[in-house]
Amino acid sequence: MNPAGHPHVKPYDALLVLSFGGPEKPEDVVPFLENVTRGRGIPRERLEQVGEHYFLFGGRSPINDQNRALIAALEKDFADQGIDLPVYFGNRNWDPYLADTLAQMTADGVQRAAVFTTSAYSSWSSCRQYRENLWDAVEQTDGAPRLDKLRQYYNHPGFLEPVVDACLAALAELPTNGEAAHLVFVTHSIPTAMADTSGAPPESEAQPRKAYVKQHRSAVDEVAGRVREATGRAHRHDLVYCSRSGAPSTPWLEPDVNDHLEELASDGVSQVVMVPIGFVSDHMEVIYDLDTEAMATAERLGMRAVRAATSGTDPRFVEMVRDLVLERAAAERGESPVRPAIGSLPAGPDVCGAGCCPNPRGPRPALCGADS
Fold this sequence. Notes:
It is a single chain. The chain is α/β, with parallel strands linked by helices. The protein has 11 helices and 8 strands. The protein has helices spanning 29-37, 44-55, 63-80, 98-107, 124-139, 157-172, 192-197, 211-231, 257-266, 284-300, 315-332, and strands at 14-19, 87-91, 112-117, 146-149, 182-188, 237-242, 271-275, 304-307. The strands form 2 sheets. The protein has a 4-stranded parallel sheet, sandwiched between helices. Strands 6-5-7-8 form a 4-stranded parallel sheet, sandwiched between helices. It is globular, with a radius of gyration of 20 Å. The two termini are 33 Å apart. This is Coproporphyrin III ferrochelatase. It is found in: Cytoplasm. Fe(2+) binds at residues 188, 285. Pathway: Porphyrin-containing compound metabolism; protoheme biosynthesis.
């Protein structure tokens, strides 16, 4: 293959969209959860309990469909821009599996591909584990193409500007345009030990330790500040967490969104906007943890709650993916591209350094960075 259709994408001849995966029918649910939790010793009974979340929605996670919609939007955007770059889709935990997709890319003659992951922030589970998955897939694929994972994009304007507009739209749904509303920014909880080691070791200045929380706080402050500029009001806001799992004895990031709603209600807050700032689309953590569980909590507490939209296929988010490809391609050609970033932190590095977001179970090789 030759990316001659647009010189600015050289040296890439494909883009791989890499995501988490999810079941698409009821009989997929428990096998999918077994894939997600493999090696953690979680009994099948517990998996079946967690699976009830999926069965509420017909045993189908929306994440694959949302990724297909994103890919279709990317393909149209590329075509509109005269970019001849095929887009492939692979998952960590369900069909289409990454290894199968990489085999197809190899068969199609792909030599070098950029990789976009549907996780914006830095931690082992949200960044490095994908790099470990890429390493594994390349190792088991003869003649696999070279894969370059694109940088994390939690502070890219193409990700955050749609969040700002979603906040404003949600506030407009409330009485008096949400004048008294509290903004509740929600992301996926992770073990505190993983959060503490996210980012690079102390000697690195680019992405210091505890990056997961620092990156979220930077994004939250930026969005809240822009909402203040647009409305002329400074809404109280907090960063909270959802989707805690694992042993009760293991500390995870808190507070949980439901516990936080309880506290807000006790303080007399009557209106909230829940902002899923940790998620790029409306997958299970959003439609169950927020739209179902947290909304039920708000209703029980007598609070008026609205949930802001995710970036999804917003044209600015789609354009961001294209820009990340062109940015990395330029860097690989030895150029010095502009790296858009908003908020208090700089744009992240293209290549993760040694010791970045270490695997909590011990050193493992990972693509696009050092091996441990």
